[in-house]
Amino acid transporter transmembrane domain-containing protein
Amino acid sequence: MSSPVEIPISPRRSPAAEESVVADAAIAPSSNPAADAMEEGLHLFPDRRPSAHSLSPEQATIHMVKAMLGTGLLSLPLAFKHAGLYLGLVLVFVISGICLFCMRQVVYAAHYVCSRNGRELIDYANIMRGAVEAGPSWINRRGYFFKQVLNVNMFIAQLGFCCVYFVFMADNLEDFFNTNTNIHISKGAWMLLLLVPILAICSIRRLNILAPFATAANVIYFGAVAIVMYFFLTNLKPTSSVDKVGDWRNLPLFFGTVMFAFEGVCVIMPIENRMERPQQFIAWNGVLNFSCVMVLTIFATIGFYGYLAVGDTVHDTVTLDLPNEPFYQVIKLMFVACIMVSYPLQFYVPMERVEKWITRKIVPSRQTLYIYIVRFGGVILTCIVAEIIPHLALFISLIGAFSGASLALVFPPCIDLLCSYAQRQLTPKVWAKNIFLVSFGLLGFCTGTYSALADIAKTFTS
């Protein structure tokens, strides 16, 4: 999963007087919350002035789809094995639907916080901060703290993706060379060899230099996925050959894998911030709903038919189940090339935050040195963690359950509760809805993290 560059917060371009009216209207008490909510919907998503970075709805949809399709897609057949063919199909729709609802909560909260604070653009962490500062007195002075809590979760998620990339590339390179050549190198050695090109590519600090390579990687990725889908559809087994409902003890691993694959809450605001007409992003037939339905369709198709084609012998990534034919074997190298280009894009988000801190705290003459020390140290750290836990499926499930559940299912309803409080709209329905979402997220977080850690521990003791 790749993330667009976060856009810095900038002042709203509309007149200051209009900002004041909007902010005051957003927080003023009301005797008729329902009517006010309808009125709020008329001005909550004002148009933005066009710029060189503006996105059309079509461009935003492409970015959303690209951002949510990554290595987790290729582990979904294994996830369906954990849940069973039919139960997995039902649950992937349920989990994805809940994630989409929570994404919409984040977008609505973003525009409320912007109207309240006189901003036009905002990122996920500052949405959390603005919501907390709009909350009750016992918490509204802790906005900066909760902003950093969310930032830490995003930091862990992004570096976790980078660790998964190391394992994914090493898995596929080891399998390709063991199958097709006389070169036999262990997975751990492949990670060390990959460290050299990854360090080189991560020394590039400007994403516009990587943009042409990223575009080419996206074309290759979709072509490779199409070939994998062709293999599934031409090698389907009867449904009687697979479990319809899996062991309930494996459901947490299914949850973590789906969350890793689908979780896109960190990418929605950078994309939404670039749209001239935000209404086109949040409408019922807008960018967010349409792109999520597209991604969900791809996920359900890959997971369902992948498990039905490969069966219970499915590997951590389905590329390892492809036939030993040149046509299919080359796909492994295609995916490795795509992921190698995606690594610096995932790596950019946490490094951007670290570099901002360095430019504030370190004297200019030493900033470049410290920036590259941190960059190279971060790459080496992800490689070390991947060497310690070289099990792709368990790693994906752990990152999905730990960071994915908190970012996509726990924080959004909490933000919605705080914004509803500030707008005097805390009805029993709002409480019930958000308590359910938080409970669902915490259940997946706890069970998924525990199951992944327990299975990882077993691999070290077996």
User: Anything to note?
Assistant: The mean pLDDT is 85. The first helix runs from residue 16 to 27. The two ends are 32 Å apart (CA to CA).
